[in-house]
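Researcher: Re-running this chain for the archive, since the previous output was lost when a drive failed. Same request as before.
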Amino acid sequence: MLTPVVRHFLGPAGPARRLLSAALLEAAGTGCLLTVSVVYFHGSVGIPAGAVGMALFVSGAVALAAGVPTGMLADRFGPRRVLVGALLAQAAAMAALVLATSACTLAAGLSAAAIAERAAYAARGALMAEAFRADRVASRARMRAVGNLGMVAGGAVGGLALHAGSATALRAAILLNAVGFAASAVLARKLPALAPKGGGPAGERAPAPVLKDRRFLALTAVNAAVCLHYGLFEVAMPLWVVEHTAAPRWLVSVLVMANTGLVVVLQVRLSRGSDDAPGGARSIRRAGLLLLVACVGFGWAGRLPGWAAVLAMLTAGTVYTVAEMLQAAGSWGVSYALSPEDQHGEYQGAFGTGAAAGTALAPVFATELVLRGEGLGWIAAGALLYALCLALTPLTRTGRSEPARVPA
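Model: Regenerated structure tokens:
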């Protein structure tokens, strides 16, 4: 039985609910894994902390390389088939992680899971583009809201495993993640079976056409740079509160919980109007302005006493969260609008890879520009992000991208 809250976010029965239910299970499993993985592999298995970090780095690099090829698979064999296969592969990789006893085996397991995750991302994006064409941005918004809900629930389960403290409890949490992916695959099997695109007649289209689509690659690169903003909240904000403001340390937890709650409640509403290229670009421009305002607010909080700093941080945190949601919705709108209808898997794979790369570099952006520059660093970061958001608009004005063709 679904609780009223969960039923509200999953929507009415049908394909969309099955897709969102699968996403909820995946997010819960991921939240659980993120909570326990480092403690388990370092504390229980005995892999050095540095080696665990290197394994995570290797898997992240592998994931970036897998985005376009796995997206091509979704176009060629059909998004549902690839999604089911990717989820089953993730389940197997997660189950195998409990057998890892060295940095090499851990890196291998995490890399396999990362490749499957990229394939699932591209296939899911293509499936939503085709099966929910009139509602695809709203579907992505609901998925993001559900994902945040799942991450919180999974993190809570992982916290219980950490509280238990035994290696058995931590292994059980990792295996629970594997079960979640397997259950997601079962749900995904009931999604619409869309015909594979197959790339058209032989020789008509160049291999990996997205790599020849200069405008879409430019869009992907600029969006990747905009995604540096995640470092502001995840890295710079906590350190700023603790080291540079008069606000109490517990404010960090309040800001993180408020961010998660607002995304769950407001992401769908704030995605309205972002369904096409002009609407998506408009949302991104608004996000850029709000990012600038939020950065000024964060920086200003460092000059204020006590509760004034708390109020400034809460206000800036709320403005940042609205900007985050608008930027996400706008990026979905423009990426769908500028992708050829027969290549959504490949194009979404490329676009998602760019966003992942920007997010991976976000901590460096936060520490080297924002924190080193202190108040001026915040202003510089906000101005840069606003300029990047404005720079996206010209890339969305000339209509949908067309597949690259092999010359006759």
